[in-house]
Specification:
166 residues; two-stranded antiparallel sheet; 4% strand; transmembrane; Selenoprotein_S
Length: 166
């Protein structure tokens, strides 16, 4: 490096300025001396900056409102249509749930009605002095012939007892 000002190449009577002239050979030497002195610090700083940039980019990408907020600001019609579709889907699901609840209630009402009829039949049979179990067998036999007239009740063959007599 040479400083110019008052020296052999300076103009006499000119302004006294300091200027730095760099020779092509002196630049790599200066960079080399800086790297040799502070190389590890520069390397560690570069790695730290890289790690910080990666973490920041991951946190911005993972944020649910980060990229979506910009899209929503650009296209409000899309957001409105999406919200309307979501509301319609919720309404459909609610109507389906209500229909299922009505079917369940109707089924429960039918079961309660059947229980009530059985209790009435049992009470009437008890008032007449008949056993309820016999009445059930009669009502089942009445239903079976109506359903299938060609079936004939089979008699059970005599089976041996499971335990021995001794």
């Amino acid at each position: 490096l040479q400083l110019t000002g008052e020296g052999p190449g300076a103009e006499p009577g000119g302004p006294s300025t300091l200027a730095v002239r760099a020779h092509p050979r002196s630049v790599p030497v200066a960079v080399g001396s800086v790297l040799s002195s502070y190389g590890w610090f520069i390397l560690l700083a570069a790695v730290a900056v890289y790690v910080v940039v990666q973490k920041v980019s991951r946190s911005l990408a993972g944020r649910p409102g980060g990229a979506g907020a910009a899209d929503a600001a650009e296209e409000p019609d899309v957001v409105v249509r999406r919200q309307e579709a979501l509301a319609a889907a919720r309404l459909r699901m609610q109507e389906e749930l209500n229909a299922q609840a009505e079917r369940y209630k109707e089924k429960q009402r039918q079961l309660e009605e059947e229980k009530r009829r059985q209790k009435i039949a049992m009470w009437e049979s008890m008032q007449e002095g008949k056993s309820y179990k016999g009445n059930l067998k009669l009502s089942q036999q009445e239903v079976e012939p109506g359903a299938s007239t060609s079936t004939v009740p089979k008699s059970k063959p005599n089976k041996k007892p499971l335990r021995g007599g001794g």
